[in-house]
């Protein structure tokens, strides 16, 4: 491996050593030096669950839940260090007029003392929490351990026997409409015979009943009107439950409400006196909706299509929430507010008012990005101009002007490395499906979108060549459910033409034909479909999944019409470029196994297959697969592996050229992730994969896919830190190769060569990656 870091790596290691040294200095400070005689610093509250009948896993969960309730909280820590307390101690007892001490005092934190802990209060609190779990006869005791002025309070919780549900009765008058509606869903009750008593389940059951009634028109009903009485007087730790409606429930909450009139203010500005209900100049649309829009800034059918109420409908919470969700996701309004008001014309009816406060018609956003990797550094700027409600139907037109520069600051290749680029992209989005076959809506739950995109980019690889590229897209995006999304580009056109090929690059192409592939004129035309499934947002699940599949077709109809066949020399050009003809299928599947509250095992399988035929022998360069880099096989540089057992090309001056691509791809990754302290996490990982060619290539012997593909996988592994700031995750990974596929058979596993003490080995093999976000 010749493409490694040298000076850059040394600088980054010094930076890391500096951080560690500073942390060691902070840790050496005493957290108790400013305490008065007789005072002790409260450092922790431990809960020990003493039970022979509860499993170890459940005892840990109960203990974690109980510890979270303890008061007060100890001083905040990072990697075990109470850093805010140290800042407070550095400021001393009095900051005076010292600016630095005032600053430390401000960001610091006063010591939490043992005298601040009320053990009796915490014991009662823990007993109460255990009763909420169904342990009605729980016992809690505590004691204190003080060592070197640091105090730990240990609470021993003995749950004793848990109470279970013996019977559940809905004690409600079934002669009333309310009673009938509550009883009709009693088979879905969360209170089930044999289950543990739980206050949380009781509260959830009240919410379930309320939500069911809201969808049956009971707008004024509330969970607080449901009473669940518990009789625990029976032996054998059993309870009877009686679900009833409180007597003080108002009459208005006992009857369903209907929708009367619907008013829409699409261009509303809130006044100092609050939301107004003036209906002057209201225009009735479709016999259902009154619009107050004197300037006619919005087309009524577009907004009406996203309101799920009609006059005469029974109130429904789902329709209520879905309307708000749709109006917000039209991305035309800053605030969406609705009011339901008792109708003065019809009893048990509601008038609905929708107040829509527009976002600015035009907006300008500027982004400046920095890029840093082990070999490349650069910057990029994006200037985005957006026009909302472009044609009065919540359409969005945007223009993005971009430019960037990237240069090589390490490694051993300089050809085709540094570059600058600039371009413009225009996107027009419609919040509906535009089709010649009339209105099509895959689902009314989510807003489908039609998009039209155009993009031009100029790329100048200063020592090699320039590329002009144009891309045009027309397609649809729609969400089938919260977990499933579809993106269908009915027509995707890409056109790339090279210019300004340098004399040096031309000479390199003569000796390394693979370099010519990167600058071949390219023309692709055809549909492109993506399907995405993910349930990773369901954090309560132990196993969650992500999958993205892609089907990409190009030139298939053109190839049939022209009768293209490269085997017979019948190939054709469009706009001075041979059009590509292929079928390409890709899949990226991920599995996340939750091991504990603070750890998980993440795994990924990425597979890519393609078949080029007719007018093409292989995929065009921009569509080919590659592996390596900070989000792939991290022990190798991007595009530095494969195809197959092909070694990275060396140029005439001995420099390394990393641009290895293929028609088939297999990548496997697994990563153990765990929390260290606060926002600091760590991970250990193993990556494997390679790319291959569809057909034999005389310039790349060993690159074709074969039954021996598993013996040609590159493997690497390592560890790293993740700094999770919620809104931003900074990732550092250090990795080394375990298996190098282009070495001779029998020598590909390189464990025997690992030598961290050798500077040459470190330079050639140690790969450092700094990135934003998780790799998968």
Automatic annotation (TrEMBL):
Entry keyword Cell division: no
Compartments where found: Membrane
Gene Ontology CC entries for this record: outer membrane
Span of domain Bacterial surface antigen (D15): 378-740
UniProt keyword Signal present: yes
Superkingdom per UniProt: Bacteria
Coiled-coil segments on the chain, per record: none
Keywords: Cell outer membrane, Membrane, Signal, Transmembrane
Pfam families tied to this protein: Omp85
Name assigned to this protein: Bacterial surface antigen (D15) domain-containing protein
Organism: Sphingobacterium siyangense
